[in-house]
Amino acid sequence: MKVVAINGNLHKVANTYYAIKIIGSKLEEKGIDFELIHVGNKEVRGCMGCGTFRMMQNEKCTYSTDPINEWFQQMKDADGIIISSQVYYSGVAGTMKSFLDRVFYVSGSNGNFFRLKVGAAVVAVRRTGGSSTMDTLNHYLAYFEMMLATSSYWNIIHGTIPSEALQDAEGVQIMEVLGNNMAWLLKMREMTKNTLPAPAKVQKVVTSFIR
Fold first, then answer.
1. Is residue 205 in some structural domain?
2. In total, how many domains does the chain have?
3. pLDDT tens for each residue of 117-133
4. Residue 208 lies in a domain
5. How confident is the model over 162-195, as pLDDT tens digits?
6. Is the dihedral angle over the CA atoms 134, 109, 49, 77 positive or is it negative?
7. Domain that holds residue 100
């Protein structure tokens, strides 16, 4: 089994990184492979809503000026996905938001490859805005029928300068519990995949409130 973690922080080694590494260490203790991908410092353009990949069904975003398609394949091949961001104006950082819009759109329009994978959202914040940022990240996981790993409190850790989050004793514990809970979900999913059939995928009904 393998978990891919997406670091949406502008800085590679900041408090988001330390939070993810805590989770990753718990996963690795349980024998689960862990890979961290740094997205936040890349030039990722926003989604243009062209829908070309829906027609092509080739699992690729039309724009290839960034590694979106490579990242998508890494996430598709994983059993679990962690998405993370620092907080900008009580929300997800811009590059990470562009990444999420496009990579989840590609997945959903090509058969929803993230469906029933184990997912977790993680937020690093100086003071406030963590809950609203985590809520936005969870929208992606929930919309695509992923199984959400939870912890003993919201998956938020506090700190300003890099590594300062390691002084947030409760935040560190939250990440440790999250890692253990995610490992348990992954193993339960793996052990039951041949004995408990997954719920059948349904054709999505789209209702317009105008027509």
1. no
2. 1
3. 999 999 999 999 999 99
4. no
5. 999 999 999 999 999 999 999 999 999 999 999 9
6. positive
7. 2-192
